[in-house]
Amino acid sequence: MRLYVDADACPVKEEVLRVAERHGLSVVFIGNSWMRGFDHPLVEQVVASEGLNEADDRIVERIGAGDIVVTADVPLAARCVKKGARGIDPRGKAFDDATIGMALAVRDLMTDLRDSGVVSGGPAAYGKRDRSNFLDGLERLIRAIAASA
After folding, report:
1. What is the rounded distance in angstroms from the CA atom of residue 43 to the CA atom of residue 53?
2. Which of 26, 31, 38, 69 is the most exposed, having the fewest neighbouring CB atoms within 10 Å of its CB?
3. Domain residue spans in the chain?
4. CA nearest 134: which of 71, 80, 73?
């Protein structure tokens, strides 16, 4: 099991590393630029080419069954789930075969509502409760995958 992080705008990189250390899991941060402060034996950084979906494509190329992707990008999570991985967003929402269809439908609906002007803005500001939900969700996800192996 490896943790893949869609790293460019991820607010929980440090939390991922702490959980990975506790479980002895390797972490792959993939983004469009190098991130300082993550020189660690468990961490590999991959810098993708600039361009639309380049980092996403690198994640999908590398991820496999039993791995976890940390991303707020629902279409990326869907691509990873299709390869047998599981996912979690920075607010602790898990993605798997049973939940990814609904997550994609809600994402598409919200995009349509924003495009038509019915809804404006995005999600609420990221806070302590979100961070706590993420940590709890990631811990549960790791344990569930380990138990099923």
Report:
1. 22
2. 26
3. 2-148
4. 71
Q: What 3-state DSSP class applies to 19?
A: helix
Distance CA 137, CA 14 (A): 15
CATH number of the 2-148 domain: 3.40.50
pTM, to two decimals:
0.90
Q: Where are the beta strands (DSSP E) in the chain?
A: 2-6, 26-31, 43-47, 68-70, 86-88, 94-95
pLDDT of 119: 77
Alpha-helix residue ranges (DSSP H) falling in 24-127: 54-62, 74-82, 100-115
pLDDT at position 145 is 95
Tokens 């943790």 -> residue: 3
